[in-house]
């Protein structure tokens, strides 16, 4: 009896860490009711993008800037801490524009305040810092982190959290998940042009240690009736795309499979070099684009060799399935 | 030893690449050591290790032949190993333009050390991993030669699938670790480290035992393992690889060679380490670009790229290749790019003699397209642009940007999307 319990506890310990955190993937689905605060509110980036966010119609309700609590910025209240901001506004999401030396601490503050969604835009956070953040993140389930080094999350027409240009988006049927910000914009632009539009766009970012991966987003997309097609944009480095391919094999096959179109950047990248993103590196022979493309194709994903054909490729898939 | 490691298939997510191996890539990459990825000379890595209490062979560095002679005498070693300090690998089999063969020499006589050093310092050493003309040797390492009775492999790295630090080791050291992984995977041992707990005693001892260290050596090795982990954290390394972690006949555990990869993102708090960076063997364009915080990587082709966003920049290189062209570089302007950076980037690209066309691909999110347009027109005017320029802009303030370019009177070809831009750039070169 005790032998079983010990075994079960061991299993739980090993699996529990993941299960705990993966239970809150739905926090990704922001909407017109999502209240957002901004950490780094009064800084240059924070101010600029908060104004953009307000112009888009997102429900930005306040921000955090330690030492400036009690003041007003862009007509909204400023708080000294995430906890105070959350208590004072009822915010369910935070967007973080804090510089690299302090960004990890800002994320941890959001986790401690148990805010359901934290989106960290910051590029340049030391990997060791993110490893520590992730250690904490995986052992709780109140807060879902997206990023760092990402453009953010947008539900077109309802809520925009991040730096993406709102005007290229159109409410629609395609879920987009991407490691690259500007390539996401390409996919958005194209799907808007072909008339399909987007249901939810999530930029998971270009860092090797981050809060949300492809699988987290794929689960949300597969379960969402409004998302009829999925675009997945990957790049060299790590094995997130291969893991996504495995997941799709198990959860998106057969007659009801949703069409998935993909582009993988970095076929021409030389090995051993960090191509801009901290996570975009082919090292020790692993993480190359060819292998990722092959893995995704084996899962029934239509991989486009050109980043300019994502919209048209998805359109063709819809045509094939008589979904237009 | 380091040169025997190849950059092939890795071990279950293990990144076993050595920085020196980057030069032997199958790709057409003809550049020398990478910049924007900190490179340390062997003696610098070993000094960092020494400072953390890691056992390395006793050594001195010398910049002149007489210094080398003095160092050899001061060492009071039974046997001395003299090693030319260059970043590229393959030193042992290299050749100096002084006529001396071999960048690594063993001798028992300090006088010989001085003599050989005189044929190394100030001369160019050519190896399989250097450019044809070789690399000038400015420093030599004079170290105590130690016998190795047994070689093991040990590395610590930040592993994505384990969400943190991982130790990897094998009692089969000194050889290609990928081969070991492929043929005898049971000889690869792994320990996942909790970032807050650090390396536990039981983990260090177990790894030491798995590496084949017995008796008092087991404790010694375990201690070295912990110190290597301390170093790994202290310098914000993404990987510390020791090959071989050796055992001497006298019963000592010694790190005979190490490769340390550093996290660029930690530069702001690793100023001392990053100050050691030697850019002499780097691409001068890359070094220059780095000064302006531009992420630039030189490639082999003739179509220069000018892009915002790393993913889009990679994709731009990919699509040029897809349409039969050859990208000359990867360049990510980043999100918060300023007008002078645009000007500098443009200047850098046009200064590259290989460049026969320039492709600008900007999708503005944070980036304001008008800023790009102003930077380009200014650069074009001042630099008297001689190569075809294809521009594809989209996003924030794009109408204003297009107006600026149109009214500039400059010979700029506009493109509607990435495919169109790549095709036009390739065609522009074909026309010449």
Automatic annotation (TrEMBL), chain A:
Which SUPFAM superfamilies does this entry report, sorted A to Z? Answer: NAD(P)-binding Rossmann-fold domains (SSF51735), Succinyl-CoA synthetase domains (SSF52210)
The molecular function terms of the Gene Ontology recorded here are: nucleotide binding; succinate-CoA ligase (ADP-forming) activity; succinate-CoA ligase (GDP-forming) activity
Record flagged with keyword S-adenosyl-L-methionine: no
Q: Give the residues the record marks as binding CoA.
A: 42-45, 68, 121-123
Highest taxon of the lineage:
Eukaryota
Q: Which GO biological-process labels does this protein carry?
A: tricarboxylic acid cycle
Q: Where in the cell is it found?
A: Mitochondrion
Q: Which residues carry out catalysis?
A: 277 (tele-phosphohistidine intermediate)
- Specify where it is mainly localized: mitochondrion
Q: Which family does it belong to?
A: Belongs to the succinate/malate CoA ligase alpha subunit family.
Role according to the record: Succinyl-CoA synthetase functions in the citric acid cycle (TCA), coupling the hydrolysis of succinyl-CoA to the synthesis of either ATP or GTP and thus represents the only step of substrate-level phosphorylation in the TCA. The alpha subunit of the enzyme binds the substrates coenzyme A and phosphate, while succinate binding and specificity for either ATP or GTP is provided by different beta subunits.
Matching NCBIfam families, A to Z? PRK05678.1, sucCoAalpha
Report the protein name in the record. Succinate--CoA ligase [ADP/GDP-forming] subunit alpha, mitochondrial
Native organism is Cirrhinus molitorella
Give me the gene this protein comes from. Answer: SUCLG1
From TrEMBL, chain B:
Source species, domain of life: Eukaryota
Instruction: List localization entries.
Output: Mitochondrion
* One GO process term, biological-process aspect: succinyl-CoA metabolic process
**InterPro entries named in the record:** ATP-grasp_succ-CoA_synth-type (IPR013650), ATP_grasp_subdomain_1 (IPR013815), Succ-CoA_synthase_bsu_CS (IPR017866), SUCC_ACL_C (IPR005811), Succ_CoA_betaG_euk (IPR034722), Succ_CoA_ligase-like_bsu (IPR005809), Succinyl-CoA_synth-like (IPR016102)
- What does the entry list as the binding residues for Mg(2+)? 243, 257
EC number(s): the record gives: 6.2.1.4
Cellular component annotations (GO), alphabetically ordered? mitochondrion; succinate-CoA ligase complex
The ATP-grasp fold succinyl-CoA synthetase-type domain is annotated at 39-246
- For the site labelled Important for substrate specificity, the residues are 79, 147
Give residue ranges for domain ATP-citrate synthase/succinyl-CoA ligase C-terminal: 307-426
Which enzyme type, at the first EC level?
A: ligase
| Cofactor: how and how many bound | Binds 1 Mg(2+) ion per subunit.
Pfam short name (any one): ATP-grasp_2
Q: Where does GTP bind?
A: 57, 90-92, 146
Q: In which pathway does it act?
A: Carbohydrate metabolism; tricarboxylic acid cycle; succinate from succinyl-CoA (ligase route): step 1/1
Catalytic reaction list: GTP + succinate + CoA = succinyl-CoA + GDP + phosphate
Q: Which UniProt keywords apply?
A: GTP-binding, Ligase, Magnesium, Metal-binding, Mitochondrion, Nucleotide-binding, Tricarboxylic acid cycle
* Cofactor section: Mg(2+)
Molecular function in Gene Ontology? ATP binding; GTP binding; magnesium ion binding; succinate-CoA ligase (ADP-forming) activity; succinate-CoA ligase (GDP-forming) activity
Its function? Answer: GTP-specific succinyl-CoA synthetase functions in the citric acid cycle (TCA), coupling the hydrolysis of succinyl-CoA to the synthesis of GTP and thus represents the only step of substrate-level phosphorylation in the TCA. The beta subunit provides nucleotide specificity of the enzyme and binds the substrate succinate, while the binding sites for coenzyme A and phosphate are found in the alpha subunit.
Q: Quaternary form? A: Heterodimer of an alpha and a beta subunit. The beta subunit determines specificity for GTP.
Q: Could you tell me which HAMAP family the record lists for this protein?
A: Succ_CoA_beta (MF_00558), Succ_CoA_betaG_euk (MF_03221)
PANTHER family on file: SUCCINATE--COA LIGASE [GDP-FORMING] SUBUNIT BETA, MITOCHONDRIAL, SUCCINYL-COA SYNTHETASE BETA CHAIN
Family, similarity comment: Belongs to the succinate/malate CoA ligase beta subunit family. GTP-specific subunit beta subfamily.
Q: What is this protein called?
A: Succinate--CoA ligase [GDP-forming] subunit beta, mitochondrial
The source organism is Cirrhinus molitorella (mud carp)
> According to the entry, what is the taxonomic lineage of the organism?
Eukaryota, Metazoa, Chordata, Craniata, Vertebrata
Q: Which gene encodes it?
A: SUCLG2
């Amino acid at each position: 009896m005790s032998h079983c319990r010990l075994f079960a506890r061991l299993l739980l310990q090993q699996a529990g860490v993941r299960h705990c955190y993966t239970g809150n993937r739905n926090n990704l689905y922001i909407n017109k009711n999502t209240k957002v605060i901004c950490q780094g509110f009064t800084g240059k980036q924070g101010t600029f993008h908060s104004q953009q966010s307000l112009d888009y119609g997102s429900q930005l309700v306040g921000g955090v800037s330690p030492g400036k609590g009690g003041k007003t910025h862009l007509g909204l209240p400023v708080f000294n801490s995430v906890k105070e901001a959350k208590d004072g506004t009822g915010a369910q999401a935070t967007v973080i524009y804090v510089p690299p030396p302090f960004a990890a601490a800002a994320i941890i503050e959001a986790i401690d305040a148990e805010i359901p969604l934290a989106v960290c835009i910051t590029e340049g956070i030391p990997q060791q810092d993110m490893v520590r953040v992730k250690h904490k993140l995986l052992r709780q389930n109140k807060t879902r982190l997206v990023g760092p080094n990402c453009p953010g999350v947008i539900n077109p027409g309802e809520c925009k959290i991040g730096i993406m240009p709102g005007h290229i988006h159109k409410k629609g049927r395609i879920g987009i998940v991407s490691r690259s910000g500007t390539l996401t914009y390409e996919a958005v632009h194209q799907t808007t042009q072909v008339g399909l539009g987007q249901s939810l766009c999530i930029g998971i970012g270009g860092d090797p240690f981050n809060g949300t991966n492809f699988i987290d987003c794929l689960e949300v997309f597969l379960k969402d009736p409004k998302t009829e097609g999925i675009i997945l944009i990957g790049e060299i480095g790590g094995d997130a795309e291969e893991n996504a391919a495995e997941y799709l094999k198990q959860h998106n096959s057969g007659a009801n499979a949703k069409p998935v179109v993909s582009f993988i950047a970095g076929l021409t990248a030389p090995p051993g070099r960090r191509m801009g993103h901290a996570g975009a590196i082919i090292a020790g022979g692993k993480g190359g684009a060819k292998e990722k493309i092959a893995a995704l194709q084996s899962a029934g994903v239509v991989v486009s060799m050109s980043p300019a054909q994502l919209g048209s490729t998805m359109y063709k898939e819809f045509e094939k399935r008589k979904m237009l | 030893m380091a040169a025997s490691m190849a950059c092939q298939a890795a071990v279950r997510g293990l990144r076993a690449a050595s920085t020196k191996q980057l030069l032997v890539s199958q790709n057409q990459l003809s550049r020398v050591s990478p910049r924007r990825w900190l490179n340390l000379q062997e003696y610098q890595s070993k000094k960092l290790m020494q400072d953390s209490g890691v056992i390395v062979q006793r050594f001195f560095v010398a910049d002149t032949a007489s210094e080398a002679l003095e160092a050899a005498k001061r060492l009071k070693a039974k046997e001395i190993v003299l090693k030319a300090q260059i970043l590229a690998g393959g030193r042992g089999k290299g050749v100096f333009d002084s006529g001396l063969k071999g960048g690594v020499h063993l001798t028992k006589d300090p006088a010989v050390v001085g003599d050989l050093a005189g044929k190394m310092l100030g001369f160019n050493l050519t190896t399989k991993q250097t450019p044809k003309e070789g690399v000038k040797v400015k420093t030599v390492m004079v170290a105590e030669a130690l016998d190795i009775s047994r070689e093991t492999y040990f590395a610590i790295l930040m592993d994505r699938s384990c969400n943190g630090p991982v130790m990897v080791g094998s009692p089969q050291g000194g050889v290609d670790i990928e081969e070991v992984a492929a043929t005898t995977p049971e000889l690869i041992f792994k320990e996942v480290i909790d970032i807050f707990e650090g390396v536990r005693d039981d983990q260090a001892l177990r790894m030491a035992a798995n590496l084949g260290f017995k008796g008092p050596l087991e404790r010694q090795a375990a201690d070295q393992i912990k110190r290597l982990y301390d170093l790994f954290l202290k310098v914000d390394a993404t990987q510390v690889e020791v090959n071989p972690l050796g055992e001497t006949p006298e019963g000592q555990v010694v790190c005979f060679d190490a490769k340390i990869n550093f996290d660029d993102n930690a530069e702001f708090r690793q100023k001392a380490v990053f100050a050691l960076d030697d850019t002499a063997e780097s691409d001068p364009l890359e070094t220059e670009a780095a000064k302006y915080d531009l992420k630039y990587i030189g490639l082999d082709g003739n179509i220069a790229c000018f892009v915002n966003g790393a993913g889009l920049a990679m994709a731009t290189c990919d699509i040029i290749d897809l349409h039969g062209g050859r990208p000359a570089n990867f360049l990510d302007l980043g999100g918060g790019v300023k007008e002078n950076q645009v000007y500098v980037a443009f200047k850098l690209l046009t200064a590259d003699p290989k460049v026969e066309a320039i492709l600008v691909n900007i999708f503005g999110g944070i980036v304001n397209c008008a800023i790009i347009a102003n930077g380009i027109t200014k650069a074009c005017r001042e630099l008297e642009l001689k190569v075809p320029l294809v521009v594809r802009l989209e996003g924030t303030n794009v109408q204003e940007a297009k107006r600026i370019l149109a009214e500039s009177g400059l010979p700029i070809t506009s493109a509607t999307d990435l495919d169109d831009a790549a095709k036009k750039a390739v065609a522009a070169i074909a026309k010449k």
